[in-house]
Amino acid sequence: MIGYMFVVLLGFLGSALAKGKADREPKGKFSIPALDVKSGPIVLEANQTLTITCRGRWELSWALPSAMIGGQEKVKLEDSRCGKQRQHYCSQLTLSYAQAKHTGSYRCRYRHQSRKQNAVYIYIADSRRPFVEEEKSIPEVLYINEGKPLVFPCRVTNPDARVSLVKQYPDSHVLKPDQRNIVWNSRRGFIIRSPTLFYVGMFSCKTSLNGTTHSISYLTHRQVNKIRDMYLNISSPHEALQGERLTINCTVTAEWNSRVSFKWDYPSKANSSNIIYEEMLKSKTHLVFYSLLSIPKLHSSNKGLFICQVFSGPVKREVNASVKVYDRPFIRLKARHGVCCRGSCRTEVLPSISKTTGFSCPKSHLV
Ligand SMILES: *[C@@H]1O[C@H](CO)[C@@H](O)[C@H](O)[C@H]1NC(C)=O
Ligand SMILES: *[C@@H]1O[C@H](CO)[C@@H](O)[C@H](O)[C@H]1NC(C)=O
Ligand SMILES: *[C@@H]1O[C@H](CO)[C@@H](O)[C@H](O)[C@H]1NC(C)=O
Ligand SMILES: *[C@@H]1O[C@H](CO)[C@@H](O)[C@H](O)[C@H]1NC(C)=O
Ligand SMILES: *[C@@H]1O[C@H](CO)[C@@H](O)[C@H](O)[C@H]1NC(C)=O
Ligand SMILES: *[C@@H]1O[C@H](CO)[C@@H](O)[C@H](O)[C@H]1NC(C)=O
What we know:
This protein has 367 residues and is mainly beta. Helices cover 7% and strands 46% of the residues. A hairpin with a 5-residue loop joins strand 5 (75-82) and strand 6 (88-95).
């Protein structure tokens, strides 16, 4: 509050002084600082010298393209008093050997009132570097946020550059700006106003300059937590014999770019001989994750409820199956299509077992 009042007071004093000294000056003049360059975009060639002078009623400061901050750039700022009665503040910016990466907006503002500013956009064209950003060998990751535009930030060093947006994966497309959903802006890049699932994948901005193709790649990512479907594959009813292998396949289908994690809960979970194997399969429209729980030798202590839990961000889902383990090899099941023989018993109600073991027994042993 005190700081704010101080600034207001200074501003008032400053304007009162200016009034006294230079009465001829129109009232609204220098309400924002003035630049000595034309207001439209300026195009320079690489290695040329850029000079801009800013003039205003109060002390000035600059906001420059980020490539000029912190680097050992050949930028020089000279502040002075100017005007007939030296009543104004001037600041001259000189950038010798301007480079493509210096392309951007150059803003001059009042030091104590940074919203009062004037800006000019400067392109520094380089026949070997069409894009302001460096071309890297690994794609930049862009995040798609729901309800927000997606910007491929491939801004260019020359406003006349012809750039195309190419979808490279999962399928190949050249996307033409339509000025409705796909907008090209040489100062920002390609803007997708309402990005759909189509915009998830690998994209690149491409341009051709003096016979050479240049491109910048992007990998777009949409964090979604959408589980479409989930099931356990274990035949029903879930009955098995002691000593046999039990395998349960927990399968989840989810939207592209989902990430899921599995958690199993079941009796005798502490036994380290149990094996869990997980894998992800990609399809054009969705992802399939599965987790296989394998118990090499069933024991009666393994009977009970097997629960597969799946987490995707805040979303949690689970499926369960109840497994019975018969500890005696002699069991007679009521199934009509069953085969039972001395020593062990197999019936049609245990299709997974008969499939996996290919069980058969001599007719003479039938009970
Ligand atoms: C700019 O100057 C440097 C050093 O003199 C030179 O290597 C480079 O090729 C020049 N760039 C352009 C675009 O002329
Ligand atoms: C274009 O390429 C040719 C040969 O590679 C070169 O001689 C010429 O200077 C280049 N033009 C520009 C504008 O860089
Ligand atoms: C797994 O079970 C689901 C439904 O329970 C079924 O639709 C699917 O075909 C089964 N998959 C396999 C490989 O058995
Ligand atoms: C598990 O289920 C998935 C989907 O149903 C299937 O693609 C995969 O092959 C199954 N894995 C095994 C080992 O049965
Ligand atoms: C763990 O499982 C193996 C075979 O599946 C079994 O032989 C062993 O007794 C079990 N150990 C415990 C502590 O349950
Ligand atoms: C097992 O699944 C069934 C049906 O999906 C559900 O009704 C039941 O509450 C679940 N049991 C447990 C212990 O989670």
